[in-house]
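Morning. Coffee machine broken again, so started the prediction first thing and wrote up yesterday's gels while waiting. Chain of 168 residues, entered below exactly as on the submission form.
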Amino acid sequence: MQHDVLGIYLNDHLAGATLGAGLARHLAHRHRRGARASLLERMAEEIAQDRQTLLTIMDGLGVPAHRYKVIAGGAAERLRRLKPNGVLRRHSGLDTVMELETLRLGIEGKSLLWLTLLALAPKRTDLDGAQLQDLLDRARNQLDAVEELRRTAAAAVFHPGAPNVRRV
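Came back before lunch.
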């Protein structure tokens, strides 16, 4: 594999990780008084740690982080908030559903990153297979948690009168 192709791949994931970390922080902050506040806060911290770990892995591989991709990832997260939600000047439950779905997609992408690097690890001394497996396991746990939150939020939005529907 050419080094420049790996660098592009990792920088693209870094941009996604920047977007995901910002989105996770945003969700945790907005739902800080909700029933799942501690889960969202922990997940936001883990996602930020995963982003930092990616930077460390990139450094170990000699892949520089491209600042413009990091900036683009952060800008995309902020621009995402401008999407009309059918409700002016406040947050709707649909926003939460869409944000959780976006976060889930990001975590799925991160899982694929760890899987790809894990497949490369046996042939590369600069990749730690055990660390990558731990990161993959954590991403899978994050997927399960986000999916539970997404289902709860979707039920509250699309079936508001149903029994046993609680808010995120």
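The chain has a mean pLDDT of 87. Going to sketch it on the whiteboard this afternoon.
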